[in-house]
Amino acid sequence: MAVRTRSEMIAETRAKLLAAGRKAFGEIGYADASMDDFTAKVGLTRGALYHHFGDKRGLFEAVVAQIDAEMAVRLKARAAKMMTPWESFIEEGIGYIEMALEPEIRRIILRDGPAVLGDPASWPTTNGCMTAMKECLAELAAEGVIRDVDLEATARMLTGASCYAATWIANAEDPQAISARATAAYRRLVEGLLRELQ
After folding, report:
1. Under a CB-based contact definition with an 8 Å cutoff, are residues 13 and 48 in contact?
2. How many CB atoms lie within 10 A of CB 41?
3. What is the pTM of this model?
4. What is the maximum span of the chain, computed from C-alpha positions, in angstroms?
5. What is the pLDDT of residue 66?
6. 33 with 70, same domain?
7. What is the CA radius of gyration of the chain?
8. CB 179 within 8 A of CB 98
9. Which domain holds residue 48?
């Protein structure tokens, strides 16, 4: 049997804690997730959690970052299937809104995330989203697809619209119905950016 290195054991412990925390946060929520319970289930101690993540909030932040990274990959893949840059742009925004229908994202990212980590606009991952949105808008403007706009202001407005729509869905009694309304409204909103044909 191969001997594992210290770095491999550290990575394995972190992965176990992330998986256990993610499962607990997704199933019962941040407030009810007991550090002792979810660490014991994977054969670890609360001390291991403190060592690797500082505390429960630190683990939660790492779980949010993990899910957020997965969401970004999925959205890029979804957008890549479209035929034009404009369709890709719309599909990525709608894809984010529709992810609010997924139970894990609904609970961890959209409900508990703001309650535990504060305003999503201040999350570390937001800067990456904003940069990507501005770059996409700049490309669309350079290609003459959309009007000349204030890139940062527009990126922030559209990001805010999609985030608020996702939160609306996450807290709705009928998420499917709200999702249909929200995605239709988002599409109409972004279509206002299109350059008028001469």
Report:
1. yes
2. 13
3. 0.89
4. 71
5. 95
6. no
7. 20
8. yes
9. 7-54
Regarding whether 34 and 117 lie in a shared domain, the answer is: no
Q: Is 197 inside a domain boundary? A: no
User: pLDDT tens across 143-182, in order?
Assistant: 999 999 999 999 999 999 999 999 999 999 999 999 999 9
Rounded Cα distance, 134 and 85, in Å:
14
Q: Report residue 157 as tokens.
A: 């407005």
**Helix intervals (H) in the chain:** 6-28, 35-40, 46-53, 56-80, 85-98, 103-104, 113-117, 124-142, 151-170, 175-191
User: Amino acid identity, residue 147?
Assistant: R
HSE-CB at 180 with a 13 A cutoff on CA atoms is 3
Give the Cα separation of 27 and 93 in Å (integer).
Answer: 26
Number of domains in the chain: 2
- Per the listing, tokens 């939660």 go with 60
Q: Could you tell me how many residues make up the chain?
A: 198
Q: Are residues 79 and 19 in the same domain?
A: no
Same domain, 86 and 181: yes
Name the DSSP letter for residue 4: P
Residue 10: per-residue pLDDT: 82
